[in-house]
Amino acid sequence: MRASAFVYPWDVNGDPEAAAFVAGLGVEQVTLAAAYHSTRALTPRHPRHRVVTAEYAAVLYPPDPARWQGRDLRPYAAGDWAPGDAYGEAAAALADAGLEVHTWVVLAHNSRLGAEHPHTSVVNAYGDRYPWAPCIAQPVTRAYLADLAAEAAVRPGARGTELESAGWYGLAHLHAHDKTGGVGLGDAGQYLMSLCFCPHCQEGYGTWGLDPDGLAAAVRAALEPVWRGSAPSDGGWAGVEKLLGEAYANGTRAWREERARTLQETVVAAVRAAAPEGFRVLLHADPVSYHCGANAGVDPAHILSVADGVVVPCTGGAGLLTPFAEQGRDGAVLAANLTVVSGMGGRPDTLAADAARAEDLGATELRLYHAGLASDGDLARVRAALRAG
Fold first, then answer.
1. Is 103 helix (H, G, I), strand (E, B) or coil?
2. What CA–CA distance (Å, rounded) separates 261 from 20?
3. What is the three-class DSSP state of 93?
4. Predicted TM-score of the model (pTM)
5. CB neighbours (10 Å) of residue 99?
6. From CA 183, how far away is CA 229, in angstroms rounded?
7. Alpha-carbon gap, residue 164 to 192, rounded angstroms
8. How confident is the model over 237-265, as pLDDT tens digits?
């Protein structure tokens, strides 16, 4: 199967050996970050540094002033961790090494945006804002995300893009020093804590026949046993319905799924309008449509009618591929995303078997997370697995 490795520009720039090293893994493609959230990343082979701190969500190229002139919401240029056209410099080196370059674009995950424009953030039933989670129901946020997608995805020479966080973000946030795991929320509790009650969403709930004040009160009442240490529910969507009642549960889900579905249509259309013919558009996706996070919850049938395919998390098992494979869409890309960094829970030593299992379940391609973060030992195992395959 065709394989691509995720890479950051700072893994490549300043290291004359990096591009050839990635190509030597046996991958045909790299998925190179063009717009990315804040992070702290190891660079175990780089000759100039070992840790890179990206202080805030930023684009890793110079944003177009004409596109963003006069707008309150605009992308932030990166600081000294990715100066100038860091993406373009890395892309050129990787292409010169014989690799096909696709962009990696993070959309609705931006803590600096929420800090500087707090009205754009998801607000929970208690009135707490989540600055890392832009509310994707708000028109101004949707317009910003569509333009960001078009600009960041269609970089010179790129043959396609992979859009991450193209949907709702919620409570769960893999953030430095995160201390929200002290109470087990479960799947249903995560949903309740991720419902947005900003003014726009409150109005939206009303269009589905829901009383937003009553809904917020119901959420708080349903969660009260959780804070006392009781299990929130028996899990899954049935658990949400049990906690909230069917009317509130299904009304909120209908509103949120409509907002996510139409956002996904909008950002894909924006990319296609800016892209050359043959440019591939994939979404990082979870087939459970009410889920939040980097792998956006989607309706498999719908998303495969909109995008060219999906990137599906498969490190813990490849079962999430099945709902997409069952759609039987000829030509759709179903990329199994496998972590190969052993220190991050990856299993490079079982890559060949995991890839074979994913292929049996419908995967057409592999994504390997992450060539820049993995040790030499992990990547030696990746190289051996790809050669054997």
1. strand
2. 39
3. helix
4. 0.96
5. 23
6. 7
7. 22
8. 999 999 899 999 999 999 999 999 999 99
